[in-house]
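[step 3/7] fold_predict: job queued, chain A
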Amino acid sequence: MAAIIGLSMVSGAPAQDFPSKPIRIIVPYAPGGSTDVVSRLIALRLAERWKVQAVVENRPGGNSIIGTDLVAKAPPDGYTLLMATSANATNPSMYKQLPYDALADFSMVSLVSTSRRRCEEQLELRRRAGRIDHQRARRRVQREPHPTAIGERPVVGHTVGILRG
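[step 4/7] structure written:
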């Protein structure tokens, strides 16, 4: 599983005041899967370290679009996190219109796991689908060592099958 924790764009709140209320981790999948389990382990550690409650909320549906949209529309204060997976990278290529901007509405907080090869595969799939500015994406990859975390094997395989089929 490859995932990042992303959040809606953070405002300029003073760091010493954060966190002062519970943290929400939105998992855009049903409870019990690997993304949910990893999110709950992270929530336990955040609660221990930050001395505030960290709550995992499962918001499945729409190939992760429902939960992702909830985070995109949350106040940009850093209290709502998204456990993103490869679906967040492939959705802009698979859907003509999303209720959020997958690149502009989120900031990466922490990389949980990734595969550089999978990232390159996803960028190529998006380029072939004509829904990504490949030069812009390549510049971003060169500028930031891990701007996206992509790589659940079933998603990549299914996407390749759909594009070739």
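[step 5/7] annotate
Residues 34-50 form the longest helix (17 residues).
The CA atoms of residues 27 and 35 lie 7 Å apart.
exit 0
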